[in-house]
Structure formats: structure tokens, C-alpha cells
From TrEMBL:
UniProt keywords, alphabetically: Oxidoreductase
Protein name: SDR family NAD(P)-dependent oxidoreductase
Highest rank taxon of the organism: Bacteria
Organism encoding this protein: Pseudomaricurvus hydrocarbonicus
A Pfam family that the UniProt record links to this protein: adh_short
Length: 259
């Protein structure tokens, strides 16, 4: 798919990190972009900085997502590109014994469910709405649109305490090919990026010693990933019309250790 000013795109989680880098890369090519994000302050700031449209959205809510797509399409027209970067997690052991009291605590089910709803269901909720909109368009060069998801190295090598996050991201990987098959007749592609350790704003709050150690874990190049590198991969997934139903690791060949 040709990336130019004729395209409209939606980027969830687009106010910071991987999402914001993708917004900037799309805008640099003239694409009309709508930023979907829960944080109004950072979302408005990102929109002003990039010339995008901000739509405040909670991906846990059907009504919120529907309203955001309506606003985005009113401003930019029907999107042909969806990039899903919204997500998050927690770090809670499956079961843990208190070293002092001997009491056993378990991972609360509601906190496990929240991570799956945010990452997996939230991503799927946006895909269904976007795909339905893309299906109203005529194909251009045989394509109606493309969706790009964000998984994580945790999908295959989750570290201790990441049971919920690993499950949520593994589900995104697992549904990618199935959705590609579902949408094949409509000429809509879908792919997933599986990032390793990236220098996102949240991670960069960690002590420098920890950041240096994380970077040293990466075989080559021995550093954290840059958000621009994620954005570059996302744009290639848009451009390359033969790339479909794939999950691509973007991690410097790292394989995560237990902790």
C-alpha cells in the first residue's frame, strides 16, 4: 500500500512511546492520523505536535471506541491503516509464599482479567471496528486496508510475574493468522510486531544502571530498541502488500531470561 496524503490512519496508544513514533512516521509521509489514547493531556499535546487529530478513548469500552472512530472518520475520512499500540500490564507472581509469615498469596483473578481485557480484547475491539469500516471502501491496488498489532517478547518468553501479560500478548500473536484468514476475502491484511526491550517513556524512568543492564542483554545490537525502529517496521508492514498473517520479532535476537 502506498503511503501518502491519500491515506488515513488510526494509532491506538498514539500519545507516547511506540505509538507516538508511529504517528510521527506516518505524518512525515503526509498521512492523516487520528491518535487514540486515554490520557487527554498527553494526547492533545501529541496531536498539536504532529498535526494529528486526538480522540480520547478507553479501549475497554465499546461505546468509547465507537465514538472515537466516528470522530476520527469525521475529521480524516475512513482509515485504511490501523496500528494498535495501546496496552499495559502488571507484575504479580502466580502464587507466592511470604518469607516472614509463610502465608500464600495468589494472583488476583480480576487483575489477570484486566490485563487480558486491556491488551487482547482492547486490540480486537479496535480491529473489528476498523475492519468493518475498511470493508466499505473500494480496493486500491487490490487492498482495502491493513491492521498492525503489538505483541511482546513476553508472548513467548514471559518473565517471572508476567503470567497475565504473557497470556495477553500470546493471544495477540495467536489471533493474527486467524484474523488474516477471516479478512482475506475483503483484501484486508493484518500483521503483528513482537518487540523486545524498547526505550519507551515508562521504561526510561528506571535507574540508569538497570537500563544499561537491560541493553547489555541484547545480543546485537547490545542496546535498547528505539521507538523509531518500531515505527519503521510498522510502515514497512503497510507498504509490503505480500506481508500478511505474520508476527515479526523486533528484538535484536534477545530471548528473555526468567528474571
Amino acid at each position: 500500500m502506498k503511503i501518502d496524503s491519500s491515506l488515513s490512519a488510526v494509532v491506538t496508544g498514539g500519545a507516547s512511546g511506540l505509538g507516538l513514533a508511529t504517528v510521527k512516521a506516518l505524518r512525515a509521509q503526509g498521512v492523516k492520523v487520528a491518535i487514540f489514547d486515554l490520557n487527554e493531556e498527553t494526547g492533545e499535546k501529541a496531536a498539536e505536535e504532529t498535526g494529528a487529530v486526538f480522540c480520547q478513548v478507553d479501549v475497554l469500552s465499546d461505546e468509547s471506541v465507537d465514538a472515537a472512530f466516528a470522530k476520527a472518520r469525521a475529521a480524516n475520512g475512513q482509515e485504511r491503516v490501523l496500528v494498535c499500540c495501546a496496552g499495559g500490564g502488571n507484575a504479580i507472581p502466580t502464587a507466592r509464599r511470604n518469607k516472614e509469615t509463610g502465608a500464600v498469596d495468589i494472583f488476583p483473578s480480576d487483575k489477570f482479567e484486566w490485563v487480558l481485557k486491556l491488551n487482547t480484547v482492547g486490540t480486537f475491539r479496535c480491529i473489528t471496528r476498523s475492519a468493518a469500516g475498511m470493508m466499505t471502501l473500494d480496493p486500491i491496488d487490490g487492498e482495502r486496508g491493513v491492521c498492525i498489532n503489538t505483541a511482546s517478547a513476553a508472548a513467548t518468553e514471559g518473565q517471572m510475574g508476567q503470567a497475565a501479560y504473557s497470556a495477553a500478548k500470546a493471544a495477540i500473536v495467536g489471533m493474527t493468522l486467524t484474523i488474516a484468514r477471516d479478512l482475506a476475502r475483503e483484501n484486508i491484511r493484518i500483521n503483528t510486531i513482537q518487540p523486545g526491550i524498547f526505550a519507551t517513556p515508562a521504561l526510561m524512568k528506571a535507574p540508569q544502571k538497570m537500563l544499561d543492564a537491560l541493553g547489555a542483554m541484547v545480543p546485537n545490537p547490545a542496546r535498547l530498541g528505539n521507538a523509531d525502529e518500531y515505527a519503521s517496521m510498522a510502515l514497512e508492514m503497510v507498504r509490503n502488500g505480500y506481508l500478511n498473517g505474520e508476527t515479526v520479532r523486533l528484538d535484536g535476537a534477545i530471548r528473555m531470561q526468567p528474571r
